[in-house]
C-alpha cells in the first residue's frame, strides 16, 4: 500500500493485471490523500522512485523471509515531527471462546504501532507515545483461562512497549478501530473464528492486513470487495470514515469488525453482499414479511390429493394440522386458511391451501411416507454345566460266636448248621442251608458308608466285603468298602429371534404355565398358574450411521422344586440397552458359578491315623460349574425376501 498526500483519484475501478507477481491494483480516495493498493500473489520486497510526475514502483523477486510477509505502507511525503501522544488505558478481557483480548485506548488514533513476535513473547510498540505512571505495571492474568499468562506495560525511551507472555499453542491478530487498538490471542486447538453476521459462515477467508486512517467506509468496503471478488451493494445511508489497523486477519473477520464498528448489517445472496444499517435491513425484512402475509390472505386456495403408501392417512392429517409452540411462537405446516381431510379406506388425504403451503405439505409427506426399515433380532442363550462327584466309605464290624446258644462255648458252624451274620456277610454253611439256622447280627462299630447324595448322585454305591475269622470260625472281623464316582456335562442353547420395525417393540415368548392349587377365602380350592417361559422383548432404533440401539429384556425361566405353596421358578433375566453395529454380535451378559465341596466324616483320633485312618472315615468330594451367556445379533433387513 502506498499513500500519496494531496493526490486525487481519477478512477476507483480496480485494474486486473495478472502479470508476474501482481494480481490487481486498486485506487482508494481518503481525506486529503490517495492510497494505491497493489494486490500481490506472494510477499515481495519493493522500492519507490519519483521521476518527474511519474511514480515508479520496482518489485524484487518473491521474499523468503517471514518478515517480508508483513504488509508495509510507503508514505510519499516529507517527514514531519509529531508530539508524543499518551496511552489512556490498557484493558484485558476474555471472550467466551477463551480468546484473550487486550484493548489499548489511544489519545491519537494516528500513532504508529509495531506488532511483532519476539521469541516467546508478543510485543506491541507505540511510537512517540508516553505511558502514565499508573499504567506501568505487570499484570498476572493466568486466572482468566486464556493463552496469555501475563502482560507488562513499560516506557522505553519515546516508545511505549507492551509485552505479552502467551503459553502453549496460540495465534494472534491485531486491529485498530478509531482510538482503540485491539490484540487478540487465541488457542490454536480451538476454532478461534466466530460466526459471521449472517449466522451461516465462519471466519475462513484468506488473511489480509489493512492500515487506514480516516478512510471512508464505502471506500474500505470497495477494497474488501476487490480483494474477495465479491459483488457489494452498499446502501445510500452508509457513510462516515474509519481508522483501521488489521494484521493477518481473515477478510470475513475484517468485514465483520467494520460492520460492527459502524452499526451495519449484511445479507448475502450468492456472490452478492448487500450492506446497509441494521435498522434499514430490519425494516425491509419486516415489510417483506407483511407482504408475504397479505399474499397468504389473498391468494386463491387449491385442493390437492395425496396417496399414502406406508403411513396411515389419519396420522399424517393430524401432523399437518398440529401446532407447535404457544402464543406468538405457535406455528404449523398449513396456513390459517388450510384444511385437511383423510379417507381411511383408500388411505388418501386431501389438502386445501395456497400453492406455497401445498408445496411444503408435499415435501413433508414425501419425507414421512417412506417404508419403515425393519430389524431382525436374534438372541442366543447358552447354558453350560459341568459336575463331578466322588464318595468313599467303609463299614467295619466283628462277631464272636462263643456266646451263642445259651452261652455254650465251642458252638460249631458247619455240617447241619449255618450262621447268618446280618446283611453284610454269610458264614460257612449258609449256601447249603442244611439244618437249622442261627441268625446273629453283625456288630458294626464303624458304619460310615459312601455318601452318594453328597456326590450329586441318586444311585447306590458299589460295595465289596472282606472277612477275617478264627480257625474255629467262631470269631469274625468284617470290612465293607463302598465307592461311587459321578460325572456330568450338559449344554442348553436357546435361540429366540424376531423381526420388528424401527422403534417398534416386539415380543416373542415360549414356555409352560404350571398349575397349582390354593385355598380361597371361602374354603374352596382354586387353581392358579405360574409361567415358566423363554422370552425376548426388544425395541430397536436404527441410528443414522447404520448401527442399531436395542432396548432388551431377555429371560429364561424353568420350573424348580415343588413346595406346599406351589412350584418354585428358576429365573435367568437381563434387561439392558446396548448399541450394536449392523450384523455384529455382542455378549450382553453372563453368569458364572462354581461350587466346590469336600466333606469328611470320621471317628475321632482313629480317622487321623496315616493309612489306617481310611478304615475309620468316609470322604465325599463334589464340584459343579455352571455358566450362562447371552448373545444378541441385530440385522437390518434390506430386502423383503431376506426375512425367512
UniProtKB/TrEMBL annotation:
UniProt subcellular location: Cell outer membrane; Membrane
Organism name: Vitreoscilla filiformis
BP GO annotations: protein secretion
Signal sequence, renumbered to the chain: none
GO cellular component: cell outer membrane
Pfam families per the UniProt record, alphabetical: AMIN, Secretin, Secretin_N
Name this polypeptide is given: Secretin
Keywords associated with the record: Cell outer membrane, Membrane, Protein transport, Signal, Transport
Gene3D superfamilies registered for this protein in UniProt: 2.60.40.3470, 3.30.1370.120, 3.30.1370.130
Transmembrane segments: none
Family membership: Belongs to the bacterial secretin family.
Tree of life domain: Bacteria
Record domain Secretin/TonB short N-terminal: where: 230-278
InterPro entries: AMIN_dom (IPR021731), GspD/PilQ (IPR001775), NolW-like (IPR005644), NolW-like_sf (IPR038591), Pilus_4_PilQ (IPR013355), Secretin/TonB_short_N (IPR011662), T2SS/T3SS_dom (IPR004846), Type_IV_pilus_biogenesis (IPR051808)
Main location (coarse class): membrane
